[in-house]
Design brief:
By secondary structure, this protein is of the alpha+beta class. It contains six helices and five strands; from the N terminus they run ααββαβαβαβα. It has a single domain, classed as OmpA-like domain (60s Ribosomal Protein L30, Chain: A). β1 and β2 form a beta hairpin.
Length: 228
């Protein structure tokens, strides 16, 4: 009888220990990756992304724990139908999407940006539609919704002053933010905060660019209204 009671006590403790261990991953999921892990991730993915966008008019830079691919509106969207992607953009976007889709630890936030000309509400809607056009390509490549978020920011985060043609062109863009999946929700929460519009956008310290000349444009492809 004594042996049976001891055995029952041991089993109870073991089961309690297992039950306790099931709760730990939930707390760990919300934690940010260690700096050395983030640095290793950046070092591993940066050359892969540069290869994916090679020969395109896209740019790549590091922003702290993020890798950001920027696509200017000019050369990416049909000038006559501003929600529609041009065929020249499909290759680099598809290569990026395939790279991300095969790594389940990775998440993507796609941000649309506009210049400050026109009504703020219309700018925000247009920037969101352009971001959704990119999102559609990622979805077609198999990236699921839990790893893919999209948001239109309008003119809230300019790269340059909007008082020149060149500055406005820089501000019209779509950004693809790649990050470890565990930080994705924190990232979208950051970009959901009330906007603070700077007079002139500040350059990103230490940013690395793979900017190339804009490629030739072609006929427009399916509208972003098919996305999301």
């Amino acid at each position: 009888m004594f042996a049976k009671k001891n055995l029952a006590l041991v089993l109870c403790l073991l089961m309690a220990g297992c039950a306790g261990s099931e709760k730990k991953p939930q707390a760990q999921q919300a934690a940010m990756p260690a700096p050395e892990v983030t640095q290793a991730w950046l070092d591993d993915y940066e050359p892969k992304l540069r290869e994916a966008i090679k020969g395109s008019h896209f740019e790549l830079e590091r922003r702290e724990s993020l890798l950001v691919v920027t696509a200017p509106v000019e050369g990416s969207f049909n000038p006559d139908r501003p929600h529609m992607l041009l065929p020249v953009t499909l290759g680099p976007i598809s290569r990026l999407a395939k790279l991300v889709e095969h790594d389940k630890s990775m998440g993507v936030l796609i941000l649309g940006h506009a210049d400050s000309s026109g009504a703020a509400t219309l700018n925000r809607e247009l920037s969101h539609e352009r971001a959704r056009a990119f999102t559609a390509i990622f979805r077609l490549s198999g990236l699921r919704q839990d790893r893919l978020l999209v948001k239109g920011l309008g003119a809230d985060m300019p790269r340059a002053a909007n008082d020149s043609v060149e500055g406005r062109a820089l501000n019209r863009r779509v950004e693809i933010l790649l990050t470890p999946r565990v930080t994705l929700n924190a990232l979208i929460a950051h970009y959901s905060q009330p906007a603070v519009i700077p007079a002139v956008a500040q350059a990103v310290p230490g940013a690395k660019s793979s900017k190339t000349k804009p490629a030739a444009t072609g006929k427009a492809v399916a509208s972003s209204k098919q996305a999301n």
